[in-house]
Amino acid sequence: MLMFTLFYKQKINGVIRRFAINAIQTVDISSPRQKKLTLSDSYNARIERHFNERYELKLVKEHIPKKYLTQNRQNVLRNLYLVNSTFAKDIVKRILPYLKNKDQVICESNAGLGLISTELIRRGIKKVRLYEACAEFRAYLRTLPHFPSKMDLYNKDIFGLNSISYFDKYNKANRVVEMLDGIPVRSWDGDPVMTIIGPMPNLNFLRHLVKSIIFQEEIFTYGRPQIFALMQLEDYHVLNASPEMNNLRFYQAWTVLFQLFFSYEVLHKYCKKSFLPWRNIPAKGEEENLLVKIVPKLNLPVSNEHLTHLYYFIIDGFKKGRQKVIATMEKWLPGIGVTLIVPPQRHKTHFLKNIDIFTEFGELPPSQIFQLFLIMLEHPHFNACPFIPMMESHLVKDETIDSDLAEVDGKIDDEKIEDVSST
């Protein structure tokens, strides 16, 4: 009887032990990093499947650096590439009518596989300038049949002009000048001096263009460019935002500046999965990138002497959009509050509702913010008001911050400041 009891206990203990082991094995004890890797593997598997399902993508996959075939976790993309030749043909078909002026430089930025440039040349464009920062892609571009007879290759991304400009100021170099070499000089009201085409990974380039117009430097010393940007939908929302969206994450000071200085138009939409690296693409559903035509306005809102005044007015006044209009402008020009509450008749028609002490900058569309600026500009005491020295102090500080950013960035990544002319 004792032997039977011991045997029975051993059997029970064995069953319990096996049950416990199985229970432990089914518990997910992976670390957050392991979970991230699993998610990334799933993400990468979807990219792999997407390429394998499409014949035209399978043909080019071997020429794409592996770092662009994995999930991108950056909040702001640094590069973006088109990998669909069918889309490239459609893009060229849509922009070709705007390229009738032959005396200009036509560029592809983030050239990658050179799909847009190849199609441009096939459709009769004599010469295309390719800007490409990735060494692996540059090596592939040199193997194309039209290189170098119809293609000029630069080892910088023109959509990264803001960073390159900072580096130039930091170590007194001329990379921007070299990147823009050969661009014709033309009057502002003439035809475009250059056309820039390609995937735009973020809004840094357009912000830089706004500042370049304000300070009349770099690309705008040659004339007006036109841009055909393939941009993410969320970036377009920032450019096209309005107070009605009631979302100050999109409606920013840069939104106001962009809409005052640029004309823009959406030409078409393309599946986001045909651009690498992938970012925030759900497993189900097809998000889209937009082809947007962007051109500086023929008539700028103010004369050149007041461009910096307008820039500071919007940057400092708008800030996060929550600043009160009258309180802020009283700080700049004491006594202007009465004029704002009862604006002159020529300005009054631009206001959908009266300005009061509670009105915030973020509640007003760009046209009304511009009218506020004109009211201040026309004030008899404008030239002697605190606004002028405050603006000058801000511009000096802004320049210092730009230089500091260039210095820090330069220390982090020396490859960024290699000579542009080496290809």
From TrEMBL:
<dbReference type="GO" id="GO:0006391">
    <property type="term" value="P:transcription initiation at mitochondrial promoter"/>
</dbReference>
<dbReference type="InterPro" id="IPR029063">
    <property type="entry name" value="SAM-dependent_MTases_sf"/>
</dbReference>
<dbReference type="GO" id="GO:0003723">
    <property type="term" value="F:RNA binding"/>
</dbReference>
<comment type="similarity">
    <text>Belongs to the class I-like SAM-binding methyltransferase superfamily. rRNA adenine N(6)-methyltransferase family.</text>
</comment>
<keyword id="KW-0805">Transcription regulation</keyword>
<keyword id="KW-0489">Methyltransferase</keyword>
<keyword id="KW-0808">Transferase</keyword>
<feature type="binding site">
    <location>
        <position position="132"/>
    </location>
    <ligand>
        <name>S-adenosyl-L-methionine</name>
    </ligand>
</feature>
<keyword id="KW-0698">rRNA processing</keyword>
<dbReference type="GO" id="GO:0034246">
    <property type="term" value="F:mitochondrial transcription factor activity"/>
</dbReference>
<keyword id="KW-0949">S-adenosyl-L-methionine</keyword>
<keyword id="KW-0496">Mitochondrion</keyword>
<dbReference type="InterPro" id="IPR001737">
    <property type="entry name" value="KsgA/Erm"/>
</dbReference>
<feature type="binding site">
    <location>
        <position position="157"/>
    </location>
    <ligand>
        <name>S-adenosyl-L-methionine</name>
    </ligand>
</feature>
<keyword id="KW-0694">RNA-binding</keyword>
<dbReference type="GO" id="GO:0005759">
    <property type="term" value="C:mitochondrial matrix"/>
</dbReference>
<keyword id="KW-0809">Transit peptide</keyword>
<feature type="binding site">
    <location>
        <position position="82"/>
    </location>
    <ligand>
        <name>S-adenosyl-L-methionine</name>
    </ligand>
</feature>
<keyword id="KW-0804">Transcription</keyword>
<protein>
    <recommendedName>
        <fullName>Dimethyladenosine transferase 2, mitochondrial</fullName>
    </recommendedName>
</protein>
<dbReference type="GO" id="GO:0000179">
    <property type="term" value="F:rRNA (adenine-N6,N6-)-dimethyltransferase activity"/>
</dbReference>
